[in-house]
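Figure 2 data, in text form.
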Amino acid sequence: MSRRRDTDRFYEIMMHLEKRVDGTRCLVNCIGAMDWPKQGVYFFFEGGETRKTGESRVVRVGTHAVSQNSKARLWDRLRTHRGTLSGKYRGGGNHRASVFRKLVGSAIIQREHLKCDNWDVGQSAKECVRKAEHYIEVKASNYIRHLPFLWIQAEDKASPNSIRAVIERNTICPAKQLQQT
C-alpha cells in the first residue's frame, strides 16, 4: 500500500473506533474508575488541526509499558498527561514525566512569549523551580484536558517490541510525510 492509502485507512479505522465507543473523550471528564483497559494506545486530536479531507488530525500518539518489566497502566499514563487535580501543585502537572506536557508547555511559552528558563532542563526540579513553572503547567493541563482522544486496548508483555510499541511506531508519521497527508 502507498503511504497515502495507509494514512487514509488509519483515519477510517479512527472513525470506526469513534463510532463504536460513542465518540471521543476528553481528560477533563475522565477518572481512573472508568472502564480503562490495563494496556493500550491513545490518539489525541485537535479541532484546529485538520487533514486536507477536513477531518480532525491526530496530533499525539502514545502508549506506556514498553520498557522491560514495566507495570504502568494506560490510565496512569493518561493521568500523567492530564495533570494534578489536588495537592501542592493542584491544576498543574509535571512536564518532566510527560513529553506530551513538555511539548504543549513549550508551545504555550513560545505562543504567549513567556519566560521560563528551566522548562526544558533536567529530569527533576527543586520546589522553587516547580513553583515558578506552575502557571505554565496549569496552562498545559487546561489545554490537554480538553483535547478529544480515543484509545484502543492492546495488552501483552511489556517490552520495546510489545504490540503497543509496534502500533505506536506504525501510526506516527515522520514530519516530512505529514505534509503529504
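Caption note: The radius of gyration is 17 Å.
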